[in-house]
Write a structure and sequence with these properties.
Largest sheet: none
CATH architecture: Up-down Bundle
Number of domains: 1
Number of helices: 22
Number of strands: 0
Shape: globular
Order of helices and strands: HHHHHHHHHHHHHHHHHHHHHH
Structural class: mainly alpha
CATH class: Mainly Alpha
CATH topology: Sodium/glucose cotransporter
Length: 526
């Protein structure tokens, strides 16, 4: 009972604070609703970035991967810090200079309206079919296991997942659809603090449990019992071969932190470039500590449960239920609930933004006033949320390593979008035709790869290598088209003066330090 009371109390507290912080924001305008009035500061940006990323598909899924493969899966966390540095130094200034609200808006200016529409369609499809259902399912699995809801409610596990999916989905929809970006970002920041505290407690209590009250003894026990789990350099048979770090892994990271609407929208809402860069750098520093929260517990669970769990994605919630003191279970479940809401409502808010600005305003009603655009976006968000809540429970029968599945399927839209953005940034004469051809080629090539490998068992290189190969070929195709049929004039990005783009003077030195720390981590665990 105490756990349920603390769960409800903390969740309600976050909601009240978010309402108080956003009640004066004018959300009848596009900037007010979609970008929080371009008023976000470094701390809010960092907290929102971290919690948008660090949700249950990350915590549950990546710890499940660590349960199987050990510390080598930390690449998903540590290399993210380097991608965030690249975003802060090179990518964000270009976005803010143009005063854009969405990534497709940039592509419209660089290429044409059709490219914008195709990109928005890819984003919306990826979020609706892949990301939103997985976030809901993984979150529901975690909450259901931590509270032992099947036994508490007298239902089977699948019914319990259904109940959690709809509970999370309804509350998350209220935040995202009716609160706008600022409500999402403020609640993210509060929950980020709780998640960092709670997330660090799990490995601490786990190590104390296996180390007879000593954290140091717990670490020694783990490393002696399973030294193979502490090798960061995986071989070709591992889930992340070391060579993939230099191919598809960095592409995935650059897409996620530099071009993914769900993530970059937080930085686009910065009050100026300096705050955006500071927020990204702060988040990058904290991200380096990520493996303590999303990798180490999986290894502890492998030792504690003797590798006998049937579903690796159960490793983290089972560990939490076993080692966390009962009075803290409610608080941690509330923090996890906040993390689930964060990823769900952030993706949903991005979908509302993409549909309202890039689809409705562009193709349906070009004369629509901003209030109408926001209203239509909210309606679309409600439909999309219901669609995701219907699909999510059925992942119960298809789950086999959520995090790896998510990263593999994401390539169908991440590689096409990243490719045309990179070429758009680095060239001035590559035409819109190249962008459309490149996007179609990358999408269908990757979908065919998935169909052949999953449906017909055809053996291919690791999916991260396939993503890199697809990227390289697509870039080559675009450059060839640009050579044969170039634009008539160079593309020059105009400065809209919506945001102060004076860079933070310490951004490059801090970025170098972050990259050095990441490299040293691999030297330690080689």
């Amino acid at each position: 009972m105490l756990g349920i009371i603390s769960f409800v109390g903390f969740t309600a507290l976050v909601a009240v604070i978010a309402w108080l912080a956003t009640r004066k924001t004018d959300e009848s305008t596009s900037d007010g609703y979609f970008l929080g009035g371009r008023s976000l500061t470094a701390g809010v940006i960092a907290g929102s970035l971290l919690l948008t990323n660090l949700s249950t598909e990350q915590i549950v899924g990546l710890n499940g991967s660590a349960y199987r493969d050990g510390i080598l899966v930390m690449a998903w966390e540590t290399l993210a810090a380097i991608a965030m540095v690249v975003t802060a130094v090179f990518i964000l200034p270009k976005y803010l200079k143009g005063g854009i609200s969405t990534i497709p808006t940039y592509l419209e200016r660089r290429f044409d309206t059709a490219t914008k529409a195709m990109t928005s369609g890819l984003f919306l499809t990826g979020y609706a079919v892949v990301l939103l259902p997985i976030v809901l399912y993984s979150g529901s699995l975690g909450i259901s296991t931590m509270f032992n809801l099947p036994e508490l409610l007298g239902v089977n596990e699948w019914v319990s997942v259904w109940i959690c999916v709809w509970g999370i989905g309804l509350i998350g929809s209220i935040y995202a659809i009716f609160g706008g970006l600022k409500a999402v970002a403020v609640s993210d920041t509060i929950n980020a603090i709780g998640l960092l505290i709670g997330g660090l407690l799990i490995p601490v209590f786990g190590l104390l449990a296996i180390g007879s009250g000593s954290i140091g003894e717990g670490i020694s026990t783990l490393m002696e019992a399973h030294p193979d789990k502490f090798n960061a350099v995986g071989d070709e048979s591992s889930s992340i071969p070391f060579a993939t770090i230099f191919t598809g892994m960095m592409l995935v990271q650059l897409f996620y932190w530099g071009t993914n609407q769900q993530i970059i929208q937080r930085a686009l809402g910065a009050k100026n470039l300096q705050e955006g860069q500071k927020g990204l750098m702060l988040a990058a520093f904290i991200k380096i500590l990520g493996p303590i929260i999303v990798v180490l517990p999986g290894i502890i669970a492998f030792y504690m449960f003797k590798g006998e769990l049937g579903n690796p994605d159960q490793a983290y919630p089972e560990l939490v239920a076993k080692v966390l003191p009962k009075p803290l279970v409610g608080f941690f479940a509330a923090v996890m609930f906040g993390a689930i809401l964060s990823s769900f409502n952030s993706a949903l808010n991005s979908c509302v933004t993409l549909f309202g600005i890039d689809i409705y305003k562009q193709f349906v009603n070009k004369e629509a006033e901003e209030k109408q655009v926001v209203k239509v976006g909210k309606t679309f968000g409600i439909v999309l949320a219901i669609f995701s809540m219907i699909i999510a429970p059925f992942l119960y029968y298809a789950s086999d390593g959520l995090f790896g599945y998510l990263q593999q399927v994401n390539g169908a839209y991440s590689i096409p979008i990243l490719t045309i953005i990179v070429v758009g940034f680095l060239t001035k004469r590559v035409p819109a035709l190249a962008a459309k051809v490149g996007m179609l080629f990358a999408f269908f090539a990757y979908v065919i790869y998935i169909a052949l490998s999953k449906g017909f068992g055809v053996e291919f290189p690791h999916f991260l290598h396939v993503q890199f190969i697809t990227f390289v070929i697509t870039v080559a195709i675009m450059l060839i088209i640009g050579k044969v049929q170039p634009r008539e004039t160079d593309y020059i990005q105009e400065y809209t003066q919506d945001v102060d783009v004076t860079p933070w003077k310490f951004v490059k030195p801090v970025g170098i330090v972050i990259c050095a720390v990441v490299i040293s981590t691999y030297l330690i665990f080689r």
